[in-house]
Amino acid sequence: MQISFAPLEGITGWLYRSVHHAMFPGLHTYYTPFWAPTADSPLSGRGLADVLPDHNQGVPLVPQLLTNRAEDFIAAAKALQDLGYQEVNLNLGCPSGTVTAKRKGSGFLSLPEHLDQFFAEVFSGLDLRVSVKTRLGLHSPEEWPGLLEIFNRYPIAELTIHPRIRTDFYREALRMESFRYAVSHTDLPLCFNGDLTSPLQYHAFSQDFPAIQHVMIGRGLVANPALAREIQGGPPLTKEELMEFHARLLEGYASVLSGDRPVLGKMKELWFYWSHLFPAPEKPLKAMRKARTLSDYTSAVQGLFRDQDLLPGAHFSPF
Ligand SMILES: Cc1cc2nc3c(=O)[nH]c(=O)nc-3n(C[C@H](O)[C@H](O)[C@H](O)COP(=O)(O)O)c2cc1C
Fold this sequence. Notes:
TIM Barrel; 7-stranded parallel beta sheet; two-stranded parallel sheet; 45% helix; binds flavin mononucleotide
């Protein structure tokens, strides 16, 4: 089974990926958080920085794009191809209101005819692998069979399914019956994504779906950066590894971001996930959240690492 790192906007940018890959090698692919190309700007700014080969040395990477305009997708994909990428992923899953209001991400799923036309143009205009990461629909899982029929018309390199509809966001129960429907109604290579946060959940999934050869894991891997190693039978994450991972990320962000505030923002977001690994994280977490300077933040983190050990078997829970 191949295990990949799902894209998480704000978290799994190039710096995070390079530190993760250096310390916890073995993932099949990392997907970039989405870049939304426009006609004027197919690839620039943060999107370009995230995919620059210099920033991603040795990291197996697939860039992700968010758009509903075929010409913008094609222009950005060509720019990525010029940088050496052989696959580009289309985001049809983002549930955020600002994105769906523009009929992008999972909002694009509500325009099946437009989506069909989009794929027709994209697949005639490009000669690189185009993969798709999708939800089951915008408002209802009843949209799913029709959407799958559209996907089936095109040579999509791989279809990653997050079996929720838009209004489920990331918390409602997975709709596994719709994933099962896809397994028996498509010949496209499938990848599964959703709530695989522990080896137990992973093994239950792979028993239920022995034909699936690829899974994408997001929050579970952010909470426990060694999750894929554990799943593959390796040793569990140690506190020393988490301390080193934390230190390398902190140092990295401090060297590329200016001022304490953006660095603190990045680190605090990670603690939302890492805190699940500790028995009593509330107090130090509160001190971290209150910290306005890197030195206050660092003393709160040091206190946590000094006073608490990792909970054996702890993992992120979305519920
Ligand atoms: C903070 C956050 C940011 C995300 N950003 C993206 C993104 O840029 N592109 C994308 O396809 N999915 C994005 N996702 C969705 C994840 O890739 C993944 O589908 C979701 O977290 C479910 O998988 P998991 O249960 O393994 O975390 C994001 C999710 C979260 C929580």
